[in-house]
Amino acid sequence: LLQEYLKVIKEAKHGRGAGINPCIDCRIFMLKKAKKFADEQKIKFIATGEVIGQRPMSQQKKQIAIIEKESGLKGRIIRPLIDFHNIQGRSRKPQIALAKKFKIKYPHPAGGCLLCEKLKEHFSSQHPVPKGNLKNKAKVSNPCFCIIFTASLLSRPPENMTIHFFFIIRKIQN
């Protein structure tokens, strides 16, 4: 899986965010994996937590349509936060309220791309920032700074870097 994902990072068809993150290609990759699993298990629909406008690169109407089509899941993705709760925009307050209502534990919503967060951890621990250098501190605090390290990462990923994919897949009975 890691080698397949590194290929997605290297050959980002739809471009990148402010860092190494190939957001649209990443979502297509994850949903293709979810589709394969769903097809094997005869699952008809896949539910995601997408919200229009939540993420600037991958959660816009045009990009969501591209992702759905290129993943091979056109008409099979359910987006309950959009479809049933009409949640949109950058604020996560409505999702947090729903999680509390249904007693669902959730991670702190700050941050962004897990790929960039893991790279930030890796590189800032290997290359500590001098205390007096505010310019470098700001750079390290931004999870998207890791574009600088693209070449070294792709040739040899850090051994302790784990890429997690979370799928919410629900079997719908006829």
From TrEMBL:
Q: Name one GO molecular function term.
A: ATP binding
Look up keyword ATP-binding and say if it applies: yes
Give the matching SUPFAM superfamilies.
Adenine nucleotide alpha hydrolases-like
- Domain named Thil AANH is located at 5-84
What keywords appear on the UniProt entry?
Answer: ATP-binding, Nucleotide-binding
Name the record gives this protein: Thil AANH domain-containing protein
Source organism of the structure: marine sediment metagenome
Q: What is the lineage of its organism?
A: unclassified sequences, metagenomes, ecological metagenomes
